[in-house]
Amino acid sequence: MSNKKRPTINPKASERVHKRRKPLPEVDVLMEGILKGDRVLLSKAITFIESEHPTHQDISRQLIEHCLKARKPSIRVGITGSPGVGKSTFIEALGKHLLEKDNPLAVLAIDPSSQISHGSILGDKTRMQVLAADQRVYIRPSPAGNSLGGVAQKTRETIILCEAAGFENIFVETVGVGQSEIAVHSMVDCFVLLLLPGAGDDLQGIKRGIVEMADLVVVNKADTGRQQLAAESRKAYKNALHLFPPKENNWIPQVLSCSALENTGIAEVWAAVNDFRKHTSANGTFEEHRQTQARFWLYESIHQQLKRQFFEHPNIKTQLAQMEKQVEAGELSPFRAASDLLALIKISAK
Amino acid sequence: MSNKKRPTINPKASERVHKRRKPLPEVDVLMEGILKGDRVLLSKAITFIESEHPTHQDISRQLIEHCLKARKPSIRVGITGSPGVGKSTFIEALGKHLLEKDNPLAVLAIDPSSQISHGSILGDKTRMQVLAADQRVYIRPSPAGNSLGGVAQKTRETIILCEAAGFENIFVETVGVGQSEIAVHSMVDCFVLLLLPGAGDDLQGIKRGIVEMADLVVVNKADTGRQQLAAESRKAYKNALHLFPPKENNWIPQVLSCSALENTGIAEVWAAVNDFRKHTSANGTFEEHRQTQARFWLYESIHQQLKRQFFEHPNIKTQLAQMEKQVEAGELSPFRAASDLLALIKISAK
Q: N or C: which end of chain A has fewer CB within 10 A?
């Protein structure tokens, strides 16, 4: 699959005619392939989802509608941690554990920094050799995009397609350095934070607030000779998490340790994910959480689009820059400035 | 000061003529009073800020503009904690300490639940008898309002007026149960979280994320016979805070203990506030933080007003309810639903 060869369904509607491209499979063909778990057609379908091309909007809309209807039960696991914590090795080990039970798996990624590299940083198949070679695994690198919101939207819609294709286990990987965790957290059921043993007593490198989002904290690299250190870290993190108030789903975040390299503790991690799923399914918060997430994305998306239209309006653009300076300098009340700006425009029916 | 007697500056402009009300002091008179530190005229001016009456908007706008120009250096301290932690006693003790140094003090409050009680819960003068009786102290209960955003706006503008009136020390009190701390945190320089000694090892009752916002954590009620317990709690909280990554201003949150009742440890709390002020002033983050806050309120206020206009539009109202249900049920992609909704309206110049 290459992003460079983007198929167009209706060349006439497109201003640029891509002569060398093959004629496109229709939505029906794509859907048939997705439902059969055909990874080539799934990839083609995801390419439509990822495309910014206006003529692809209709196709991706239809694909998503069909896939939403065809969804099967799944567990979506978010995995984050600072660079160097061993995310790829961990995903490879956890994925191998799933394959032993013949569980199909999709590995997606969100990396907002991949705008230039087109997603080569995360979800790189070369770093997950066993998974990449297995027909029961689907790996897709981070989509490119100009905004985290856009990247997150594409990944969330890709999840829907993967679930329709029968991938019951969805991993979404991200880096532990910023806003991207919040995006991932709002699209997964279970959020796993990877940490290193003995990395000081602080959570250096992990953004404030990320720790609180974790359902599972896993001290990775508890390799031979470092088990004692890992056990101490595990205890310290456990005490720290204990200080947080309980989550709304009544789940107490678990702290585990493992060595992805030596394949120890991996089964325990997956058992904890299953415990989480059982616990939240039993008290109804699993489904509730998904509904809350869907509502979150609805309103988030409305707000983003509304703001874009507002701030791109020429009347606003010219005034805002000047007002912002006055507000920062303490010469103008921010509330008054906002009212003045809003008074410049009106919202009406189309 | 009574909210019931709301003065109007221009009875002709008002549709309802309030015959029994006294003719109003002009903005000039109010400003002269504020600049002299006249508490009666300051209260009258704040009543305009708090008023929802359209004819008062012009006056409050002018007052704020004048006061922004007349502002003096100040420190704004946010104080929060669960009910029962002793906020009033703590503020009374800390305020008395300031008065010993002849420092004027304004005590404001944000209580979103005070819509009905008109702010009687917090900032109640009867609970701060020494402060209430002192001419160097100005106490104002929480403004009423239909939304936290509205209440926060009024309090933030009240801070501006108090600063122009020469109150160099501004305390903003709030309850430790929700969104109101985030509002207070975004309008103060230094955020103080009060906790009880030995209240278990967890922060029960304190919302997730509040602890991370604290610049100072104070274990109150370290009264005679409970000092050992308080010392243990202090140590536990100190260890827990140590696990958080450093703040952007490079300030390491301090954990102290005090007995507001027995007046021990209070001077140390105020010394820590001063340390915070010196530290952040020296590295430039004090002023930077205020600029960030002003920008935050500008954009927050724009977003709120924009959303209100959008969601109140009849075309949106009728469609949204139905779409939200489909999105929650997983039948419709939230992103597509948002695009469809946005397609119903347009933003144009007035």
A: C
pLDDT surpassing 80 at residue B238: yes
Answer yes or no: do B327 and A294 touch at CB < 8 A.
yes
Cα–Cα nearest to A220, from A198, A205, A201: A198
A346 phi and psi angles, rounded to 5 deg:
-140, 150
Q: Are residues B103 and B175 part of one domain?
A: yes
Radius of gyration of the CA atoms of chain A, in A: 23
Alpha-carbon torsion (B83, A292, A255, A221), positive or negative: negative
Tell me how long chain A is. 350
**B323 has a pLDDT exceeding 90:** yes
> How distant is the Cα of A241 from the closest Cα of chain B, in angstroms?
9
Top residue of B298, B305, B313, B328 to mutate, by most chain A CBs within 10 Å, is: B298
Chain B CA closest to residue A303: B307
Residue B21 reports pLDDT greater than 70: no
Residue B75 shares a structural domain with residue B89: yes
What chain B residue is nearest to A350 in terms of C-alpha separation? B345
| Closest partner CB to B345 (pick from A203, A327, A348) | A348
Q: Which of residues 254-273 of B touch A (CB under 8 A)?
A: none
Instruction: Check residue A174 and give its pLDDT.
Output: 87
Contact B347 A346 (CB under 8 A): yes
Q: Which pLDDT does position A16 carry in this prediction?
A: 41
**Cβ separation of A208 and B245 shorter than 8 Å?**
yes
- Distance in angstroms (rounded) separating the CA atoms of residues B55 and B75: 32
Q: Which residues of chain A have pLDDT under 70?
A: 1-25, 112-126, 176-178, 199-208
Shortest distance, CA B330 to any CA of chain A (angstroms): 6
Same domain, A80 and A181: yes
Size of interface A-B (CB pairs under 8 A): 205
Residue B127 has pLDDT above 90, yes or no: no
Kindly determine whether residue B333 and residue A157, on different chains, have CB atoms separated by under 8 Å: yes
Contacts A294 to B, Cβ<8 Å = 327-328, 330, 334
The pLDDT, as a whole number, for residue A208 is 55
| Residue B349 belongs to some domain of the structure | no
CATH number at residue A230: 3.40.50.300
- CATH value at residue A42: 1.20.5.170
B272 with B302, same domain? no
Point out the residue among B209, B212, B298 whose CB comes nearest to the CB of A334. Answer: B298
Across the interface, whether the CB atoms of B294 and A334 are under 8 A apart is answered yes
Q: Does B302 touch chain A (CB under 8 A)?
A: yes
What's the order of all strands across the beta sheet hosting B169-174?
A: B137-139, B105-110, B169-174, B75-80, B190-195, B216-219, B254-257
B169, B104 in Cβ contact below 8 A? yes
Cα gap B237→B256, rounded to integer Å: 10
Instruction: Summarize pLDDT for A76-114 with one digit per residue, the tens.
Output: 999 998 878 899 999 999 999 999 999 999 999 888 665
Same domain for B195 and B171, yes or no, is yes
Residue A210 in contact with partner chain B when CB distance is under 8 A: no
User: Which range, B16-25, B69-78, B232-241, is most confident?
Assistant: B69-78
- Residues of A with Cβ-Cβ distance to B248 under 8 angstroms: none
Looking at the complex, does the CB of residue A252 fall below 8 Å from at least one CB of chain B? no
pLDDT of residue B290: 95
Cα(B194)–Cα(B190) distance, integer angstroms:
13
Q: What is the distance between the alpha carbons of residues A198 and A207, in angstroms, rounded to a whole number?
A: 18
Of the partner residues A203, A306, A344, the one whose CB lies closest to the CB of residue B244:
A203
CB-CB under 8 Å, B202 with A244? yes
Phi then psi dihedrals of residue A53, to 5 deg: -70, 125
Has the ipTM of the complex gone over 0.85? Answer: no
Number of domains in chain A: 3
Residue A349 located in a structural domain: no
| Residue A198 covered by a domain | yes
- Which residue range(s) make up the domain with B228? 71-283
Quote the pLDDT of residue B115.
46
